[in-house]
Specification:
mainly alpha
Length: about 170
């Protein structure tokens, strides 16, 4: 989301882009599995239930077609650590500094740098479709699915992810 929104807001800063597991900041996943996790993370965070938030957040990792038992425990540990580190930098009620980028889909065709989207083939259909839409909407877009992984393909299949990105970079 940050990468694609930067392409839209500050195109002069970008020569090419790799968008991993995302499309634009206006992405909305209608998948019931994803919506349930969003609702639980929002509920837990509003209640100050950090453990509940972490449990819900980590359920994104396997995607809707697997369970946490299908994911390397070290990946779950690392994501938990990263999430806790991020949360520790914030306080309840602090100002939301996120600058929301709007009207993204109508502006995406104006992106004139090469864009690669990389998603796990086990992510939600909406996430995969949105990434493909992004790749199809830019002048020089490509989309790759990495089999056997969901949202965190870079962590679950780092060698494959790196090879895909390296192949893309060689074309620049």
């Amino acid at each position: 989301m940050i990468v694609s929104d930067t392409l839209l807001e500050h195109p002069e800063l970008v020569r090419a882009a790799v968008v991993g597991g995302a499309s634009t900041g206006e992405f909305q996943d209608s998948d019931p599995w994803h919506r349930a996790i969003q609702a639980e993370t929002a509920r837990a965070l509003a209640a100050g239930d950090i453990e509940g938030w972490l449990k819900a957040f980590l359920s994104y990792v396997p995607g809707p077609h697997r369970t946490l038992d299908d994911v390397d425990p070290d990946i779950l540990r690392r994501l938990r650590e990263m999430a806790l580190n991020t949360l520790s930098k914030h306080t309840p009620g602090e100002k939301d500094w996120l600058v929301r980028v709007t009207d993204t889909w109508s502006r995406v065709p104006k992106i004139d740098v090469p864009v690669l989207t990389v998603n796990g083939a086990l992510d939600t259909p909406d996430a995969i479709a949105a990434a493909q839409r992004l790749a199809d909407s830019v002048r020089d877009g490509r989309s790759v699915l990495i089999e056997g992984t969901a949202h965190y393909s870079n962590m679950e299949k780092p060698e494959e992810f790196t090879a895909v990105v390296a192949d893309f970079l060689r074309t620049l």
